[in-house]
Specification:
The protein is of the alpha+beta class and 589 residues long. Strand 9 and strand 10 (140-149) form a beta hairpin. The radius of gyration is 33 Å and the shape is flat.
Length: 589
């Protein structure tokens, strides 16, 4: 991840509340650390910096830096230690040992392959898939790499120690290490190596160190090789890296093939969308067709996924000039000013050779199936199930004891009604003269009646009984996203808020907030809206709300936002706030 340089976004001193939260997060992630060790890592009175960076592949990473050395990095809300921290606490993570020549490949960005792992007499560490682990070299317990287990230790044995073992994230001598003081690993003797392995097995001969590159590429019989499994691991690792390098070279060649300027690329995109629209969208019965309508309804709809038409970035600058070129040089259309200042396409040459020879690209609608990655087609979006629940309060706990429901237990309204009904029948509280009423016993009196009602009310209707019970319970909501554990919170779920704000001189923008509560990716919404309305959109952090952003798009786009959320994401209307602020259409003349 840090084999190439990264970009620093911000570098700030951590706040007191964030410092306490970080200490709690570290304690939860690494329970083997004692309270004194935590205080040493996160001191109360020393400066601790939070550095936000973007890795070379675009991953957002947070670094926690103490005394100019990064100690932890946070990726996708998970904390990992750096080599600087592991040199202080070598036993913090389960470790896999390998031979010294392999480390150079890990520094270059390769993962640790199982054939290159040296299995000690005590066996492999017990790890599960995805567990954080470290990599050391034989004869030194100071870790030189950090990553996650590609498979569990049981699977490693069952696969015969073949395949990928550790997905490496950070290594000694990578750019994250270079962000610190660039110190080297300490010498920590390997007890297993010293006691139960011979020196010939532990130490790498000088001859092998001099010929490190040759050993990694192809170990021969004449060259030193620790054992057959280690050599085969180095070969497998080398082949995997060569394939990765070939893939990177291929992608670079593809990107280098197109040497056109951005202006030429936009001109080609305009022509493609123009021909596509004429051949598949425009009908003869629609003529004459306003040029602005043609651009908005037809050309924009034919724009390929991931691209955006911008006339200002083309050599034409204006739609009128582009259409004039299509008329004079290509003889595709005839444009005429039917009203003052209003141009329309009045004729299309359907027999034009260029138009007839144009082949339609495969239809790939960006919004054909909502996805969570902004249009790259990974996980289809499914709307969450939102359910209202009721939590037992301390006052109502005696009423639910027989049903084994303690304070804080949550249940649906139907379950509450069932428990209350069972309580009434079991205690024979149904009124003898009128079965529509329930006699109030001491428990119901304490739980449901106010003090002023103790002497006044002797019976309650069934509906009143249920209403009072639900009214005195804590209302909650449960959100269930497909494939995820239910999330239960107190109160009411916040609706998606759509609003219009003014920016500058009479410019309006539409803001969409609280998408995350419904499992909707704001980046995907921003990309879809940008494609729909052909206006710029940005993501902005919500003040006072951590890990939440709002979508901002130019103009009053409430109609489009509502259509996207209701039809595309299938969010119920009752969970969307602000649809009534959409601009109303004027009267037709």
């Amino acid at each position: 991840m840090f084999a190439k340089s990264f970009r620093v976004k911000s570098n700030t001193v951590i706040k007191g509340s964030d410092r306490r939260k970080l200490k709690a997060d570290i304690s939860a992630a690494f329970p083997s650390l004692t309270a004194d060790e935590l205080s040493e890592l996160i001191p109360n009175k020393e400066e601790l910096n939070v550095v936000k960076i973007y890795a070379h592949k675009g991953d957002a990473v947070i670094l926690y830096v103490l005394h100019k050395n990064p100690l932890f990095f946070e990726l996708e809300k998970r904390l990992y230690p750096t080599v600087y921290l592991l040199w202080m606490y070598p036993a913090l993570l389960p470790t896999f040992r390998t031979w010294a020549p392999v480390i150079q490949k890990l520094i270059g960005g390769a993962d640790l392959m199982l054939p290159g792992v040296v299995v000690p007499p005590s066996g492999l560490p017990d790890v599960k898939k995805g567990a954080c682990c470290a990599v050391t070299v034989v004869s030194n317990r100071a870790p030189v790499a950090v990553g996650t287990a590609a498979i569990s230790s049981e699977e490693m044995h069952s696969l015969g120690m073949k395949g990928r073992g550790v997905a490496v994230l950070h290594t000694y001598m990578d750019h994250l290490w270079a962000f610190g003081d660039k110190s080297g690993p300490p010498s920590v003797p390997d007890e297993d190596c010293g006691e139960e392995m011979s020196e010939e097995e532990c130490d790498v001969p000088e001859e092998a160190e001099e010929k490190e590159d040759e050993i990694l590429e192809k170990p021969s019989e004449d060259q030193w090789c620790p054992d057959a499994s280690a050599c085969s691991g180095i070969e497998e690792l080398s082949v995997a890296e060569q394939e990765e390098e070939k893939g990177e070279e291929g992608s670079e060649k593809e990107s280098d093939q197109d040497q056109r300027t951005p202006q030429e690329i936009m001109d080609a995109l305009l022509l493609q969308c123009f021909l596509h629209a004429l051949k598949s969208k425009v009908k003869k019965s629609e003529l004459p067709l306003l040029t602005s309508t043609f651009l908005r309804n037809h050309m924009f709809a034919c724009c390929p996924s991931g691209k955006q038409i911008d006339l200002k970035k083309s050599s034409y600058k204006k739609l009128s000039k582009f259409l004039q070129t299509m008329q004079q040089q290509h003889n595709l259309v005839r444009v005429k000013e039917l009203a003052k200042g209003v141009e329309s396409i009045v004729e299309v040459d359907w027999k034009n050779r260029e138009l007839r020879s144009f082949s339609l690209p495969e239809e790939k609608d960006v919004e054909a199936s909502p996805v969570q990655d902004g249009g790259r087609g990974e996980i289809p979006y499914n709307p969450p199930e939102i359910t209202t629940l009721y939590s037992v309060s301390a006052r109502l706990e005696p009423l639910f004891l027989d049903a084994n429901k303690r304070k804080g237990a949550t249940m649906h309204a139907a379950e509450v009604r069932s428990i209350i009904t069972e309580y009434v029948k079991r205690n024979e509280l149904v009124a003898v003269n009128n079965k529509n009423y329930v006699t109030i016993d001491p428990t119901l009196c304490d739980c449901l009646l106010e003090k002023s009602e103790y002497q006044e009310i002797e019976c309650l209707k069934w509906d009143d009984l249920f209403t009072r019970t639900l009214g005195r319970m804590q209302e909650c909501y449960q959100v269930v996203h497909p494939g995820q554990a239910p999330i239960t919170k107190k109160g009411h779920i916040e609706p998606i808020d759509i609003s219009v704000a003014s920016r500058g001189s009479n410019k309006k923008v539409t803001l969409v907030k609280n998408l995350e509560a419904y499992g909707v990716d704001p980046a995907a919404v921003a990309a879809a809206l940008q494609h729909r309305v052909q206006a710029s959109s940005v993501l902005q952090p919500v003040p006072g709300a951590r890990d939440r952003v709002s979508v901002q798009i130019q103009g009053n786009q409430i109609h489009q936002v509502g259509s996207l959320l209701l039809d595309h994401y299938q969010i119920p209307r009752k969970y969307i706030q602000g649809l009534d602020k959409a601009p109303k259409g004027g009267k037709k003349k």
